[in-house]
Predict the structure.
Amino acid sequence: MLAWESYVEAQALRAQGWTISAIARHLGVTRVTVRRYLSGEHTPGQRARSVPDPFEGFAEYCRLRLGADPHLWATTLFDEVTALGYAGSYPSFTRALRARELRPACEPCRSGKTSQRAVIAHPPGAETQWDYLELTDPPAHWGFAGSAFVLLGVLAHSSRWRGWITESLDQPHLIEGLDQVVGRLGGVTRRWRFDRMSTVCHPGSGRLTVSFGPVAVHYRVGIDICPPRHAWRKGAVEKSAHVIAQRWWRTLADDTTLAGAQAGLDRICARLDGRRRADADGGKTTVGALAEAEPLRAAPAPLPAVLSVERTVSEQALVAFRGNRYSIPPGHTGEIVTVRHQLGTPALDIATARGVALAHHLRSPDGAGALVRLDEHVDAMTRVVLAEFTDRAPCPRKHRRPPTADALAEADRIRHAQAGPASGEQVVIDFDAYASGTRPLRGRAHTGETSGQDGRESS
């Protein structure tokens, strides 16, 4: 095999009029090798196979199968050629498919996918793009059952980003997040764009759900659903999710409270409003300046959706919710209770898993660290604690307590049972007790006589 350096050298020497023999002596190879490379019969850098290619006899079959079905799995095709007698390994098989370029491109898929990315112009105030960002491994003291989520809203014209941290993807939390993010963005655009999330539309058809229709009517916005299998139709919000995950979530400290995390997210979004942009005339401006100039409608009052989350009752009969703790009557320590809050109202309710009401509280601001306790709950807890209090002297812990006589006797019995009969000890068998405990043969009473082989009794 000639490397590319030797091949280039041979080409240059041949152009200078050198003979094949002189080039072969100069490169230290045979004349046949030089002649084959100069004629194009061999390719430089590729060693010729010393044994026949085991795939060669199956190449035409693979070409026909993949030509009829470009999406046929290589594993399925490998099973077919193995049944036909192919003896090579699966990695060698797939390498041969790629080297011969036997899999054709699917034209319908090629028309729907492209590596090109075009920036779609959005008029001011026209569209807000929405998406969720999943945040794995949130701080344990947040009390979330699994991952945390950030509902992101982006003004498509100016690229202003705002987000709201939530613990659930259900529709009430989505409605709360829409209200929070719209307020942070500064208003409502004419249309909202979502991907096929089940709380907004039916993922298969893309039609709005019956429960989300009143939400769109409440905000007086048109809804656009992204088509399936078309990536980057919400490029602005997808880019915001990438930036926020890398620049904010990765560096969040473990001791950060939920309210502190939300404040940090608001700060970084406001700081990113300083990104530079070009205005319609080509002049330099910023994201914040473009966003302030967008004609946005004022956000309406929150839709009265009811949030419902589960919490575990502490030993002090307290239930944590959004950075505050609320009291319930004693006797429910360790139980799972449900906290309900209707958006737009100042109160929250706590009930058992079966729906029995436990407490009704005025809600404190999120993250305030407030301890909200009703007087009746405090009195009930005090009565329970005092009822369990006693002035009886505790059991002495440092007095001597040797084993009792019964315990010593039981220990001797155990040692004797484990040791077994001692050597030289005679074992006596009581045959009368054995005979009385056995079952009489053939149902007859035991007489001490045995029967002979012919059925006659013998003594």
Observations:
- DSSP finds 15 helices and 16 strands in the chain.
- Confidence is low (pLDDT under 50) at residues 444-459.
